[in-house]
Recover the amino acids of this structure.
């Protein structure tokens, strides 16, 4: 990883009428990093991305992308960055191959690269299919191929997996990982917590136009010091044992039971595990630490809604 950041932003602002869409965003994205802007709908992720892509002028603040100002539209940057357009922006009545070839031509890239890219994104057999006939996942792959056809160092992706079924999302995650493993810096926006957690080296958690926290997903979760939830099937402990445990662990462990589950919530799981082991109640045990959902709740005081 090079020491020069791929992107820096300082105090970015953007207002649309009464809406302050971006409200003082500062960030630094390292070269080679897989970076996520994470937040609920309307958090200002797309607007921030568009400023970094050079598609929108900020009202205030300063951005540098690969050492260059992205605005006004900077011709030195265009060959070095890839911007994934929404699938709906495809030209009408073109096949997947023709669509990609049109992008390749814009960048002066030859036809061999078009075939390579089709294969690379798993569309090798669909080159002759009309873009409008592709499935949601295939269309996303084609739009990613269009963003990559000129081999950019830095790729911007705006909610690349929105609307896809779980299998298609997983397949696309594999592709995105490969793109990053090639050495490219990847910046994506997402409102999916699991996606951010699984893919991103670091995320910026956004809400109401501001970045609330930036860090590696695991580090953000750890810093929260959220309790561990240990769950076993309801009835795993006899009522007498449970009553005794409640008395003994009072103040250290919160114990709740409904018809389905017996749940222990604690920052000190050892005595709970010892108790369950002693009573042969480990069958079906699940343990879960905090998640980015807890981080969001902690930062905003409200539940995260995708
Ligand atoms: N062109 C525009 N004109 C007016 N308001 C806009 C425009 N674009 C975005 N907004 C508003 O600015 C705010 C931030 O929008 P933005 O699209 O950046 O958020 P987002 O986090 O990407 O959300 P989403 O996932 O819904 O796209 C929202 O309140 C949105 O309604």
């Amino acid at each position: 990883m090079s020491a020069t950041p791929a992107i820096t932003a300082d105090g970015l602002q953007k207002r649309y009428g009464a809406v302050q869409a971006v409200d003082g965003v500062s960030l630094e994205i390292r070269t080679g990093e897989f970076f996520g802007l994470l937040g609920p709908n309307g958090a200002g992720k797309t607007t921030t991305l568009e400023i970094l892509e050079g598609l929108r002028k900020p009202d205030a603040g300063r951005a540098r992308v690969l050492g260059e100002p992205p605005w006004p539209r900077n011709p030195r940057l265009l060959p070095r960055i890839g911007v994934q357009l929404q699938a709906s922006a495809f030209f009408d009545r073109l096949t997947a191959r023709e669509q990609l070839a049109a992008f390749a031509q814009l960048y002066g890239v030859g036809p061999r690269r078009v075939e390579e890219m089709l294969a690379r994104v798993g569309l090798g057999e669909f080159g002759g299919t009309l873009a409008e006939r592709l499935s949601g996942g295939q269309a996303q792959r084609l739009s990613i191929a269009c963003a990559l056809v000129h081999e950019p160092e830095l790729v911007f992706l705006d909610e690349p997996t929105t609307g896809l079924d779980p299998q298609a999302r997983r397949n696309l995650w594999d592709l995105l990982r490969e793109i990053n493993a090639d050495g490219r810096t990847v910046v994506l926006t997402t409102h999916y917590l699991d996606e951010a957690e699984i893919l991103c080296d670091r995320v910026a958690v956004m809400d109401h136009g501001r970045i609330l926290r930036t860090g590696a997903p695991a580090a953000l979760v750890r810093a929260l010091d959220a309790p561990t939830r240990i769950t076993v099937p309801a009835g795993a402990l006899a009522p007498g044992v449970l009553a005794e445990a409640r008395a003994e662990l009072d103040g250290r462990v919160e114990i709740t039971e409904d018809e389905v589950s017996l749940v222990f919530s604690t920052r000190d799981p050892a005595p709970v595990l010892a108790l369950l082991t002693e009573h042969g109640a480990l069958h079906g045990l699940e343990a879960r630490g905090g998640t980015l959902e807890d981080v969001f709740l902690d930062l905003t005081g409200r539940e995260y809604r995708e």
Observations:
- The first helix runs from residue 45 to 53.
- The chain has a mean pLDDT of 92.
- The pocket of adenosine-5'-triphosphate is lined by residues 16, 19, 21, 39, 41-47, 189, 191 (CB under 6 Å).
- The chain has ten helices and 13 strands.
